[in-house]
Write a structure and sequence with these properties.
Number of helices: 12
Shape: globular
Strand order of the largest sheet: 3-4-5-6-7-8-9-10
Number of strands: 10
Radius of gyration: 19 Å
Largest sheet: 8 strands, parallel
Structural class: alpha/beta
Strand content: 5-15%
Order of helices and strands: EEEHEHEHHEHEHEHEHHHEHH
Oligomer: single chain
Length: 321
């Protein structure tokens, strides 16, 4: 496993981190507690040292906390998220930060997360939505500073609104955030336009989520793909979206001249090819997926020709809407 600096924070994070939404036994159907525990432990064995969870991920914080406490000697970093008080995803323009992240709510959510996980602090506390209109307003920044002073968090970041990297550029430039978490993948390359360069300039760490497009860039989504009842992917891949993805993936595979099974690896390497990226956090619900994804951190970058091919497959769309 190779490591990169998380912006100016002084922390080094594994190139492959662990996205723990899928093990929360809520929106992703099929995870089992035993397999989740095995997967998390195997990830740490392989050098993964950043796990990303959230208050809204069902049992995820509890499961992550159990493993991290048991593996205390491994110094695993944990990032979690505070949900917006008004329950609105994404953050709408014109919303007062007093409705989303008042100081009392931030502190209460963090205390609940600490109790659920059994941890005494989180390494990164992130707002689960963000809007640059909130800069300089209300008491959220003062609360974050106080929580750092109290030792309950080390760093502060935000999870950037889905497919809206421009919504956090002012925050990055302000110096108020230590990190941002953003969707960046072969299809959604928009962060590379403005957000990632701003992060590099201002020393803000970049945590990349949805690098595999919720499974779309694994090569396993076809027009006939179905998901269990209650799985959020039934909505994400609804109507003719699986067929659209299948066509796009077929074109990528053909242009790269690779087998379909190699697509996920190339998709992760594409993300890691950007120098501003600190870590990528694919969801991993099995030991097999952990081992396959961790193996990508081997220092073997894509060629310029391969990157040029993938750059041509930019596909702006928002399947969350």
């Amino acid at each position: 496993m190779r490591y990169r600096e998380l912006g100016r924070s002084g922390l080094s994070v594994s190139e492959i981190g662990y996205g723990a939404w899928g093990i929360g036994e809520s929106s992703w159907v099929g995870a089992t507690r035993d397999e989740s525990l095995r997967a998390l432990n195997r990830a740490i064995d392989l050098g993964v040292n950043l796990i990303d969870t959230a208050r809204g991920y069902g049992e995820s914080e509890r499961i992550v906390g159990q493993v991290v406490r048991e593996r205390a000697a491994d110094e695993v970093l944990v990032a979690t998220k505070v949900p917006p008080l008004n329950g609105q995803w994404p953050a709408a323009d014109g919303t007062d930060p007093a409705e989303t992240f008042p100081g009392e709510h931030i502190r209460s959510s963090l205390e609940t997360s600490l109790a659920a996980s059994g941890l005494d602090h989180f390494d990164v506390l992130q707002f689960h939505v963000w809007n640059d209109e909130w800069l300089g307003r209300e008491d959220w920044l003062e609360t974050v500073a106080a929580l750092k002073q109290e030792g309950k968090i080390r760093l502060f970041g935000v999870s950037v609104n889905d497919h809206a990297p421009e919504s956090a550029v002012a925050l990055v430039r302000s110096g108020a955030a230590d990190s941002v978490q953003v969707i960046y993948n072969v299809f959604d390359q928009a962060p590379a336009d403005e957000l990632l360069p701003a992060c590099a300039e201002h020393g803000v760490g970049v945590i990349v989520r949805v690098a595999l497009d919720e499974g779309g860039l694994t090569g396993r989504i076809t027009a006939d793909t179905t998901f269990p009842e209650g799985d959020f992917r039934n909505r994400y891949f609804r109507d003719d979206r699986p067929a659209q993805v299948e066509r796009r993936v077929a074109a990528i595979v053909a242009d790269l001249g690779i087998g379909q099974d190699a697509l996920a690896e190339h998709a992760l390497r594409f993300v890691l090819s950007h120098p501003a990226v600190s870590t990528v956090i694919p969801g991993m619900r099995s030991v097999r997926n952990v081992e396959r994804n961790a193996a990508v951190s081997d220092g073997k970058p894509l060629t310029e020709a391969q990157l040029a091919v993938l750059a041509a497959h930019r596909w702006p769309r928002n399947f969350y809407s």
